[in-house]
Amino acid sequence: xxxxxxxxxxxxxxxxxxxxxxxxxxxxxxxxxxxxxxxxxxxxxxxxxxxxxxxxxxxxxxxxxxxxxxxxxxxxxxxxxxxxxxxxxxxxxxxxxxxxxxxxxxxxxxxxxxxxxxxxxxxxxxxxxxxxxxxxxxxxxxxxxxxxxxxxxxxxxxxxxxxxxxxxxxxxxxxxxxxxxxxxxxxxxxxxxxxxxxxxxxxxxxxxxxxxxxxxxxxxxxxxxxxxxxxxxxxxxxxxxxxxxxxxxxxxxxxxxxxxxxxxxxxxxxxxxxxxxxxxxxxxxxxxxxxxxxxxxxxxxxx
Length: 303
Ligand code: AKG
Prior knowledge:
The chain has 303 residues and is an alpha+beta fold. Helices cover 21% and strands 18% of the residues. It has one domain: q2cbj1_9rhob like domain (Jelly Rolls, Sandwich), CATH 2.60.120.620. It has helices at residues 38-41, 52-67, 92-95, 97-102, 106-116, 143-151, 197-200, 211-221, and strands at residues 19-20, 43-46, 77-79, 86-90, 120-128, 138-141, 158-164, 176-177, 184-185, 224-225, 233-237, 242-244, 255-262. It has a 7-stranded antiparallel β-sheet. A 4-stranded antiparallel β-sheet has the order 6-12-8-10, with no helix packed on it. A two-stranded antiparallel sheet has the order 1-9. The structure holds 2-oxoglutaric acid.
C-alpha cells in the first residue's frame, strides 16, 4: 500500500463525506472579460470563439476523421454502445494538423494559461460527436475524479475547452453543469476494474457519484446548461459536476474538447486504479504547448 498523501480519496469501499476544495480555482491573472465568472461558477462561455468559416472547416475535418476507414478498429475511436455510430475520437490533435495548430493559438491556450497561472500541456484531446438519433449521454461526473484516480493527476489544476462545431441546443444533448460544484469533491464508490477505460468511455459505471450525491449537489448548486451557436465555447474546471442527456433529435451536437493541465501538476501514478490509462487518453508528454505568455502569473508567486 502506498503512503503517498491523497487529498482527494475516491473509488472507496464505503461512502465518505464530500471534501471541500482548498486548492485554488483560478491560479493566474484573468484578463479576458469572458472569464470573469470562472472562479464563482467553475466555468465560463466564450461566444464566437471560431468564425463561421472556421466552423465549416473544422466541421469538415471532424467529419473526415469519423469516416476514415484507416481509423476503424483504432483504440482512439469509441463507438456508441447502442447505435454503433462514432461517439468519440481521442488524440485528435495528432490526427488533424488544423486542430494541432488551433490549440497553440493565444485565443485558445491563453484561456487555460490565465486560469492555471503557468505554462500548460495537453492532457487529452477528443471530439464528442453526439450523433442525432442515437447519441447517448454522459452520466454526471467530475473529470478530475477520474483523472486523479486513473491517471494520477495530483490536484484539480486543469481545464477543458469545449468548442461547439454544431449548434448546441437545449434539446440535442448539450452539456449540463452545476455552477459552483467545482468547490466540492465527491468521493465515489467501487474499486476501479482492470482496463476500466474500455468500458467507461462508452458508458461510465465507476467514478460516478450516487443519485443521493447528485440530488444533494443539485439542491445546493442548481443545474444550468451550455448552449450556443456553432463556434461558441465553454471553458470549465476539471472538478465541475457535469453530464448530458441522450440526443434523440435529428441534430448532431459535435464538440472538440481540449484538456489543458498545468505543467506544475504533471501526472504521477494513478491514485486509485491498478494501472495507468494509455497515452491517447492521458498524455505523459508534459511539454508545454508554448512558453507561457509573459503576463501569465501564478498565485503561488504571491506566497
Ligand atoms: C466527457 O467526455 O467527460 C464529457 O463529460 C462530455 C460530455 C458531453 O460531451 O456531453
